[in-house]
Specification:
2 copies of one chain form a homodimer.
Chain A lengths: L1 H13 L1 H6 L4 H26 L7 H14 L22 H4 L1 H24 L2 H22 L4
Helix pairs in contact in A: 3-4, 4-6, 6-7
Chain lengths: 151, 151
C-alpha cells in the first residue's frame, strides 16, 4: 500500500500545474498561450502608446493596464506543456522545449518585471513608471528574440 | 477655456475603459474578448472535470483555477466596444449592443459569482466550492443563451 501513496506524494511535490496540463491537447495549449499573449498585448499596447507620447499620459489608466499585465504574466508558462511545439500554427520555436530551464528563467523575468511595473504604477511617479515599462518590455523582447519565430 | 476642461472631466467621469477602447479596431476587440473566453475556459474546464467527478478532487488546484477566473472575468466587458458586432468571425450576437445595459448586468453576475467562487475555494469546503461552481457556471449559461450564437 505504500507505492500509491508515494506516487501521490510525488505528484503533489511536482505541483498542481503538472497535473492539470498532463491531459491537454497540444492545440488547446497553443490556443491558450496565444490567448494569454493577446490579452497581454491588449493591455501593453495602451501603455506603450503613452510611454511613446502618442496618447496623453493617464496614470490611472496606465496603472489599471499594468495591474492586468501582472496578473496575466504568471499564467503564460502553463501554455507550453511538453509536446505542444506542434499541433497548430504557432510562433513558439522548438528551442523552447530544448531549453526549458532557460525559457522558464525568461518567463520569471517577465513575471518579476511586470510585478515591479504594477508596483511602480501604484506610486503614480511618471518617470518611474516609464522606466519600469521599458524594463518590462525588455523581458518580452529578450524572450521573443530567442524563442519566437517571426516568419 | 472652460470647454476643454469640461470635456476632460466628462471623459474622466465616463471611466478609463471608454478612453482606452475608443480607437480600437473591431477585429482587435473581437480577438481580445475571444482570448479572454479562451483563458476562462482553460481554467474553468479542470474545475468542471472535478465537479463532475471525471478527475480526482484537488482543492488546491480548484482554488488556483477559481482565483484566475475571478481575475479574468472583470476584463471581458471592454472587449465589446460599440461597433465590434462585426469585423471578424464572432459568436457575439448583435443583440448585445441593442441591450448593453442588460448585457452589462449579466457580465456583472459573472464577475460577482466568480469572486464568490474564489472566496469559496479559499475555504477548502468541497461542498461549498461545488455549489458555487454551479452558480458561477449558471451565469455563463444565462449570457450564452441570450447573447451567444451557437451556429
Amino acid at each position: 500500500m505504500r507505492r500509491p501513496s508515494l506516487i501521490l506524494a510525488t505528484a503533489a511535490a511536482l505541483g498542481t500545474a503538472a497535473i492539470a496540463t498532463a491531459a491537454v491537447k497540444p492545440e488547446t495549449a497553443i490556443a491558450y498561450r496565444q490567448a494569454g499573449y493577446t490579452m497581454l498585448g491588449w493591455n501593453f499596447g495602451p501603455m506603450a502608446q503613452m510611454v511613446r507620447g502618442k496618447t496623453p499620459w493617464d496614470a490611472a489608466e496606465f496603472a489599471r493596464r499594468a495591474e492586468r499585465v501582472a496578473l496575466i504574466a504568471p499564467q503564460l508558462l502553463e501554455g507550453f506543456p511538453e509536446g505542444s511545439d506542434t499541433g497548430a500554427t504557432t510562433e513558439a520555436k522548438p528551442d523552447i522545449w530544448k531549453n526549458m530551464d532557460d525559457f522558464k528563467l525568461k518567463m520569471d523575468d517577465l513575471v518579476k518585471q511586470s510585478k515591479l511595473l504594477a508596483d511602480a504604477a501604484k506610486s503614480g511617479d511618471e518617470a518611474r513608471m516609464k522606466e519600469q515599462f521599458k524594463q518590462t518590455a525588455g523581458t518580452c523582447k529578450a524572450c521573443h528574440d530567442k524563442y519566437r519565430s517571426e516568419d
